[in-house]
User: Fold these one by one.
Assistant:
Number 1:
Amino acid sequence: MQSQSVTDGMLPDFLDDSVVAAWSASGAPLVDLLRQARTPGRLTGFRRGGRAAVLVTEPRHVHQVLGVGGDRYVKRSHRARPLIGDGMLTATGEAWRSQRRLLQAMFTGRGIQRWEHHIVAAADRVVGRWAERARRGEPTDIAEDTQFFTVDTIWRSLTDHPLDQETYVDLAAVQDIVAALPADVGGSAALPPEVETALAALDERMHRAIAQARLRHSAAGSRSGSGGPSVLDRLLDAAETDPAYTDRLIRDELVTLLVAGYESSARTLTWAFVLLDRHPEVMERAAHDARAVESVLHETLRLYPTGWLLPRHAPADETLDGRRIPAGTDLLVCPYLTHRDPEVWPDPETFAPDRFPARTPLPPGAYLPFGIGPRACLGTRFAMREMETLLGALLSRFTVETTEPAGEPVFGINLRPAGPLFARVRERS
Ligand code: HEM
């Protein structure tokens, strides 16, 4: 580490440039460099491509950056911006505030109850699929099943319609589109033709949904389905009084909720099955106890927070824990490493769902699978409800045995297990 003293304050300690060069030459994933940079109790970082990045893993630092300093440390333009446009994930300032205000009530407090019937209907579909697989003695791909389920729940909440197979194919293509986008924000490289085609199909699907909802609106005078207005209804209402809600912005918000809303929940469910497969005694407990299902999900999110890296940026000079953070510095908040802090989580690599609910309050910033502060996840309660519903329904009815080991973790935009997860499922007697 190079410790640097300057007249107007100490900078964080930076990794020696030779260490960064060796990491870069090795082709190892970013998380390996972060592991090397991490020094318990201290603010450390590295320089890459002329830019300084500071790693933020200590709970008190996380709390300062995302919580207390949530308005000062901001998101840089999102890599997926060409896909999600000006939706809530990328918006900043007043535009973000008003978008968040509009949808917040649908996803918090009692607003969440409106999604219950959609979630239950989508879970029933997967239970039906597994019953069929069990009857035929065929293995099922859990990664695919959980993904279909989470796209189905989000599509129902957006449009009030169940998902059909053709729509599923168009919507689930967003992960290939995101993967094909240039890694440098604002990069202008042309997209491969098949990705352009997938993007066009997705846009058409979204614009058709908007047109249908608008027709329904004017024909019936009421847009409410059985559980109250859908997200799309709410956006169309806003468009009547706020000119900011053009069809383009409505499309961006739908794609944002799709992108933000399905992959994390699907991967978390897949991780839960990976961990339960290694811990059959926990699987048995969860099969008979809803509270154990909840604890399994919290512990899964601790070990495999799908949002494993939450980057921020300091547009102005800041001071963090007595260290100088010059304007232009990137701050890499890393829940994956924070959740493995042995000071907070004894024996951190061990899967132990009975850590939850925590017996004593956790230090602020110590557990953040859904982020913290003003930009914390809009869908936390929706996600927990849908994951508890599906996992509870499947475990109580089936035994599950994976037929090949899960792949290694892939630290991409999301943290996911590599490859499919095939399992043999059997009806419990
Ligand atoms: C297990 C499932 C999920 C996990 C682990 C998760 C995690 C996160 C995290 C960590 C953030 C904060 C990102 C940051 O600070 O940079 C976030 C933001 C967000 N999430 Fe989720 N999420 C999940 C499910 C969902 C669902 C189901 C929805 C939609 C219904 C959703 C909608 C959003 C939105 C809109 C934001 C951006 C909020 C803003 O910037 O104001 N998420 N999510």
Number 2:
Amino acid sequence: MSEGQRSGRSRPSGPLLYDRISGLYDRLFDPFEGPLRDEALRWLAARPGERIVELGVGTGRALHPLAERVGEPGSVVGIDLARGMLARAARRVRRSPAGARALLVRAGVRPIPLAPASFDAAFLSFTLELFGPPQAERLLSEIRRVLRPEGRLALAALWQSPRPGWMERAYIHGHRLAPHLLDCSPIDLDGLLRQAGYDLRRAETRSLMGIPVRLALAAPRPRF
Ligand SMILES: C[S@@+](CC[C@H](N)C(=O)[O-])C[C@H]1O[C@@H](n2cnc3c(N)ncnc32)[C@H](O)[C@@H]1O
């Protein structure tokens, strides 16, 4: 049974939607999302030898440069449920020697199928806001579980700004009318990170065609 059938919806949504649009995804979204994703990647500042996990790896636009940055002793893992997106990610990383350091896993992210405290850093771009706030907080807690205590997390996500402008309001309206198409729902990223047990190291707002996008760098709050 397909995901759409299981949920009682006739239109594809979630990873099934991404499967369908995987061939168009980069052309449709990369001109807008790419520069913001790249900035969040710079904030993560991957270092040689690190182990990094990306959740909702999509077509591998971030995973590929991450695999190059971690170099020979490092490794990267990209997780996604959409076969079409993963196939594109696989093609992208295999084009370069860095591909040998990249593992792609077809899996859901709740729970993350990885061992506790096994990664130096985690990365998410335009993925956390696909989940409603309670699930997003749970996903952030899951990421905290797989990060080493001194690890870090960088994200780019649609931002629920304190004073939404007209583009943000229009987007939210569109999301309510057609959540299967406009599937991201702006989130209070800073608040979610704090609730999930992170300290914010840096957070700034950018604009994606008038819709606020929050970039954040966070670290697990020490447990005493
Ligand atoms: C908006 S795309 C972003 C892709 C990529 N991070 C980027 O910046 O281009 C969201 C990705 O999350 C994946 N995804 C959605 N729900 C998921 C879930 N529950 N488990 C794993 N992946 C999921 C989708 O298949 C899709 O590839």
